[in-house]
């Protein structure tokens, strides 16, 4: 049993800079997040002594060169190559550093730019395995493995296009009013979802995230510090991560969450039924459904029935899911996508939603999932949070 | 002229010379016998670097099929829809392959073979029947590649 994250606060959640493409480089986005977090917390830059950054487009810069770029003197630096699990991994690393006194205030930031040809370059060079075994077969990056996962999921569970549509349509409704959502003003009906053009196998247009530029971030500090600053903050009831779990499975219909979820809830001292909202990593709706199953909201293979019988919108009294619209409605800003759900959860459970506030939300569980290497995503993470 | 992506890793260079006759050559560990894919410089099971390229059985079970209706790659975009499959080789690893057996369903028994795509770079193809049916397919323009 690992030590609890007692005394750690998550504060100053920020989401900014979302655009389809950008001529700014990644340090502009990271720095924008840092500036916004300082403004929100009232802390001077000199108070930040730790920086954890996830970004695919940061090269030739790194988290080290960023200290000089922003004039920071740091005693804790972390580079986060975990893609969609970056936010929760940042939380875990930073929380331990704060608990152990290695740093006092750590800025955790996921940010990426998106140049016009950026997405093709990113997926073409994503990893050695992908270069040999995925990219030559013609699909745009992760569309191939996820169309195969979705096809197999349909074959095993009987999921229909309407089931995936329920996830996407509810998220689009949740995006309304969230200022950073690139599709926040574009309502999506089930008819529109079903009429969309096919992309790869069972995946159609609205099953796929839109690559974009943007930044997400939050501060990790002691609860004492957050209280003395008088800023809203959230506590970490439990968090875990697992990489390359169930490697022998033919097709990835479960991942690291399945391995650690029972212990996660035990450490958190509560269960799925105690959550006021769920944020899943939603690069494709099938992955959100795998998280609903793995995190215990329904049985394995039970997510199609779960989404038929559960209202997933913010205002429906069911289980609000991806309350700012998720990546499917906000856009996927590279590694920022691995922070989006976590940052939104911090806002919701501290009563500071920028769009639709879930009334009375105090507790949330957040899933992370990242680094599609060839046929599956290697990183899984989850965190259970409570508003202080 | 548009071609499929021709870039491959250095570690897979031996596959550039694999015969295209319906057989399958992949990496095999000289130390523990594991067959592995995608190619790498060490055995993913025992970590030895004594890796040998050798012919293995192409027998495989179809896991899932994806019919591409969209591609960022112009060569594929001109030839849509395009079928790709994942398969579990009897010899061990999961592979992605161009699917020549267009009506095959999950759990179907197929064969996987080395091939060259239109760029001349190595690739894998899944097909039904024996090696000679694959060779005959290659001789018919329009089927593959
Ligand atoms: Zn070996």
Verbal overview:
By secondary structure, chain A is an alpha/beta fold. Chain A folds into 2 domains: 131 residues, Peroxisomal Thiolase, Chain A, domain 1, CATH 3.40.47; 224 residues, Thiolase/Chalcone synthase (Peroxisomal Thiolase, Chain A, domain 1). Helices cover 37% and strands 21% of the residues of chain A. Chain A has 14 helices and 11 strands. In chain A, strand 2, helix 2 and strand 3 form a beta-alpha-beta unit. The longest helix of chain A is centred in the N-terminal third of the chain and has 16 residues. The mean pLDDT of chain A is 96. Chain B has 145 residues and is mainly beta. Chain B has one domain: OB fold (Dihydrolipoamide Acetyltransferase, E2P). Chain B is 9% helix and 36% strand. Chain B is built from 2 helices and 8 strands, in the order E-E-E-E-H-E-E-E-E-H. In chain B, strands 4-5-6-8-7 form a 5-stranded mixed barrel. A 3-stranded antiparallel beta sheet of chain B has the order 2-1-3, with no helix packed on it. In chain B, strand 7 and strand 8 form a beta hairpin. The longest helix of chain B has 9 residues. The radius of gyration of chain B is 15 Å and the shape is globular. The structure holds zinc ion. Zinc ion binds next to loops of chain B.
| Amino-to-carboxy terminus distance of chain A | 24 Å
Tally of individual helices of chain A: 14
Count of folded domains of chain A: 2
User: Hey, roughly how much beta strand do the residues of chain B contain?
Assistant: 35-45%
Based on the coordinates given, report the CATH architecture of chain B.
Beta Barrel
Placed side by side, the strands forming the largest sheet of chain A appear as: 3-2-4-7-1-8-11-10-9
Instruction: Return the CATH class of chain B.
Output: Mainly Beta
Largest sheet descriptor of chain A: 9 strands, mixed
CATH superfamily of the largest domain in chain A, called what?
A: Thiolase/Chalcone synthase
Note the total helix count of chain B. Answer: 2
Oligomer: heterodimer
Average pLDDT of chain A works out at 96
Shape of chain B: globular
Q: Bound small molecules, which ones? A: zinc ion
Q: Give the ordered list of helices and strands of chain B.
A: EEEEHEEEEH
The separation of the N and C termini of chain B measures 15 Å
Beta-strand segment tally of chain A: 11
In N-to-C order, the SSE pattern of chain A is: EHEHEHEHHHHHEEEHEHEHHHHEE
Structural class of chain B, by secondary structure, is mainly beta
Biggest sheet strand order of chain B reads 4-5-6-8-7
């Amino acid at each position: 049993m690992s030590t609890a994250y007692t005394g750690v606060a998550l504060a100053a959640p920020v989401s900014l800079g979302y655009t389809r493409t950008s001529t700014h480089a990644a340090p502009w986005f990271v720095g924008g997040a840092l500036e916004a977090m300082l403004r929100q917390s009232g802390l001077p830059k000199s108070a930040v002594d730790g920086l954890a950054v996830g970004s695919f487009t940061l090269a030739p810069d790194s988290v080290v060169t960023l200290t000089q770029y922003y004039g920071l003197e740091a005693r804790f630096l972390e580079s986060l190559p975990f893609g969609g699990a970056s936010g929760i991994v940042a939380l875990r690393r930073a929380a331990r550093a704060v608990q152990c006194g290695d740093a006092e205030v750590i800025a955790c930031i996921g940010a990426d730019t998106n140049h016009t040809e950026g997405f093709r370059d990113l997926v073409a060079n994503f990893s050695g395995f992908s270069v040999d075994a995925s990219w030559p077969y013609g699909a745009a990056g992760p569309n191939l493995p996820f169309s195969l996962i979705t096809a197999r999921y349909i074959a095993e569970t009987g999921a229909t296009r309407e089931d995936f549509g329920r996830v996407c349509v509810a998220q689009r409704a949740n995006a309304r009013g969230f200022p950073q959502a690139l599709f926040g003003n574009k309502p999506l009906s089930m008819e529109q979802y079903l009429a969309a053009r096919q992309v790869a196998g069972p995946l159609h247009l609205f099953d796929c995230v839109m690559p974009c530029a943007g930044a997400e971030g939050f501060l990790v500090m002691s609860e004492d510090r957050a209280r003395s600053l008088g800023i809203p903050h959230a506590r970490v009831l439990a968090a875990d991560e697992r990489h390359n779990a169930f490697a022998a499975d033919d097709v990835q219909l479960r991942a690291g969450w399945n391995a650690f979820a029972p212990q996660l809830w035990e450490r958190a001292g509560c269960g799925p039924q105690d959550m006021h909202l769920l944020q899943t990593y939603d690069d494709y709706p099938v992955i959100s459904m795998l998280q609903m199953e793995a995190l215990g909201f329904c049985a394995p293979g039970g997510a199609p029935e779960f989404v038929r019988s559960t209202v997933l919108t913010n205002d429906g009294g069911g289980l609000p899911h991806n309350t700012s619209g998720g990546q499917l409605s906000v856009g996927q800003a590279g590694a920022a996508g691995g922070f989006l759900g976590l940052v939104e959860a911090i806002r919701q459970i501290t009563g500071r939603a920028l769009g639709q506030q879930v009334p009375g939300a105090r507790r949330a569980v957040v899933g992370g999932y990242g680094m599609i290497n060839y046929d599956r995503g290697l990183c899984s993470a989850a965190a259970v949070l409570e508003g202080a | 002229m548009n071609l499929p992506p021709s870039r491959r890793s250095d570690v897979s260079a031996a596959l550039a010379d694999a015969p295209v006759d319906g057989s399958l050559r992949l990496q095999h560990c000289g130390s523990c016998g594991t067959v592995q894919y995608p190619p790498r410089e060490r055995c993913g099971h025992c970590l030895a670097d004594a890796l040998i390229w050798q012919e293995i059985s192409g027998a495989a079970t179809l896991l899932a099929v994806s019919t591409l209706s969209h591609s960022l790659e112009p060569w594929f975009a001109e030839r849509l829809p395009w079928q790709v499959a994942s398969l579990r080789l009897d010899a061990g690893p999961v592979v992605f392959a161009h699917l020549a057996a267009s009506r095959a369903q999950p759990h179907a028994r197929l064969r996987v073979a080395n091939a060259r795509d239109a760029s001349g770079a190595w690739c894998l193809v899944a097909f039904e029947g024996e090696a000679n049916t694959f060779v005959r397919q290659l001789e018919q323009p329009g089927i593959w590649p």
